[in-house]
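The protein record quoted for completeness.
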Amino acid sequence: MRTCRHRIVPFLGLFLVLAAACGKSNSPSAPNVVPAVLTVTSLPACTSANKGQVVFLASSGNGTLETCNGSAFVATACTASNIDQVLYVVSQATFEACTGSSWTAIPFAANGVNVGSGPNSITGTVAGPSGPLSGATVTLSGNASANAATDANGHYAFTGLANGSYTVSVTNGASCSTASAALNNISGLVARDFTLTRTGTSGACASVTGPQGPPGPQGPTGATGATGATGAQGPTGATGATGAQGPTGATGATGAQGPTGATGATGAQGPTGTTGAQGPAGPAGAESLINVTAESSGPNCEAGGQRIDVGIDTNGDGVLESSEIQHTAYVCNGTSGGSQICASNQAECNGMCTDLASDPANCGACGNVCPACASGVCGSIDFGSVPINTSVTRQFTVTVDAGYRMQGFTGISGINPPYSAANVTCAGFTGPGTCIASETFSPTASGTFTGVVDADECPLTSGPCIPIAVSLTGNGV
C-alpha cells in the first residue's frame, strides 16, 4: 500500500484528514480526495497481488473495514497511530473517520437517498450565485429513479446504485436556472457538482452579494482630550509571607573502598585413594515356573483342555502357588464340529470365529478381554475429523496383569505431534486390574494421520516390559 500525504480540511463542521494523491477519483476536479472503498457482502480472495486493498464488509450494523495483508482480510484497526484517518465508503456515501479507538460514520449528505444494494454512489454539491443551496430538488433517472433534496451544506447523495447509466437533474424554483448531467456506465464513486445561475428577481438565486470593497482611507486624528484628575492613592499592600527555609546541604560523598587483596594460590591435589574391596555376590534370582493342569469344560474351554499358568517362584519352594501366577492361557480341545482357524483380529467362540471388536462390554468375545479398550473397540482409537489447531482427547482402558506395574508410554508415532499420551489413573498403577489413560490428537495441518502408542506394563521384580499397542487414526480438516 502506498503511503499518502494528508491534509486537514473542514467538512460538515468537523476537521477531516484527506489523503492527497492517494488513489483514483471519478470527480473531474479533485486534487485532494479521500480514498474510495468499495462495499462487499463477502470478502474477495486476498493474495500478494492485492495486498493493502481495503473493502467495506456490509453487515447488520455499519459493517467493518477490512484490509488484505497478503493472505487474508483482517479488520482495519483504529488506534492512536492512525487517528483522523478517513476512508470513503462508496455504497453508503459516508466517510469512516478513525477517532483513535473506533471508526465513526460521517454522512456526506445528511438526507442522502439509498436507491438499492449496488456498490456505486453519485454525490455532489449544488450551489447558487451566493454559495451552497439548501433544499434544491435533485432527480435521478435512467437505470434507477429517485428524488433527493440538498442538505444545509448543499450536499446530495444517491447510494446503493448498480452499474449502469444515469441522468441527474437539479431545480430550485423560478429564480434559479436548471441543470442536468448524463453519467454513463458509472463505477464506484462519481462526484458531480452543479452551479445554478440567476433567472429571476426574487428567490434563492435572486440576491447576489458582490465582493467586499477595499478599506477606505483612514480619517484624521482627533484633538487630544483634557487630562483627567489624578486618582486617589490606593491602600498599602499586605506584608508578604515569610519565605520558606532553604534546603539542607547535601551529605558528603562516601570515601572510596580500598582494593581487594590478592587471591592465594590453589593447593596441590591430593593423591588418589586405593580401590575398595569387591562386594559380596548378590542372591540368586527367582526361577520362572510353568504349571500345566487339566481344564474342565466350561467358559474357558467349551470341550475342556489344558490350563497353562506362568509365574515367578518368589518364595523359592519350587512350587508355582496361586499368588505367584502372573499369566494364564488355555489350550482347548476341539468341539464335535471341529476347531476353527480364525484371523488375527478374531477368536473362536462356540465353534465360530467372532470379531474381537464386536463386544462393547469387554472389547472381546467369549471372555477374551483386550489389553487395551477404547470406546468399545479393541486396541484402536479413531478421532474422526478434527479442525486444525484444535485438540480432541479420548480415554482408553489398560488391563495391567498381576505382578506388573504401568510404566509409561512409548511409540514415536503415538507420543509425538500431532499425538500425545497421558496418564489419567495409570501413573504407577499395579495389577491386577484396569486403569485409564488418554490420547490427544492436535492436528496443525489437513490430512490423515496414523500412529501407534504402546502402554508399557513392566514386572515388579525383573524381566522385560510388555507393550500394549493401541492404533491411532485421525483426520485434520
The longest helix spans residues 412-415.
